[in-house]
Amino acid sequence: MAARVAIVGIIVENPEAVEKLNAILHEYAAFIIGRMGIPYREKKVSIISIAVDAPQDVISAMAGRIGRLNGVSAKTVYSAKEAEN
Question: Which helix (H) or strand (E) holds 39?
Fold first, then answer.
């Protein structure tokens, strides 16, 4: 399956979910291009964006696992075309 470039936007409202979130991201480390995290202390949330280059089913599986964590939401935006290798 061809790779896609995508951004996974993550909002963490439950600090207890961070350890599980990091474990999931570690499992998909080979596909992660970069990661940016912003703690928004005033609102008690963390905002994370993950840039990935992977087959669409891998990206969907990762985002689905993240989104099932208690107090965590995730949305994915895909590039319009397949990534070139």
Answer: strand 32-40
**pTM of the entire structure?**
0.89
Every domain of the chain and the residues it spans: 3-82
Name 26's Cβ contacts closer than 8 Å, sequence gap at least 6: none
9-61 pLDDT, tens digit each: 999 999 999 999 999 999 999 999 999 999 999 999 999 999 999 999 999 99
8 Å CB contact between 66 and 24: yes
Closest C-alpha among 24, 23, 20, 80 to residue 56: 80
Q: Is 35 exposed, middle or buried (0-12, 13-18, 19+ CB in 10 A)?
A: middle
Say which CATH superfamily domain 3-82 falls into.
ACT-like. Chain A, domain 2 (3.30.70.1150)
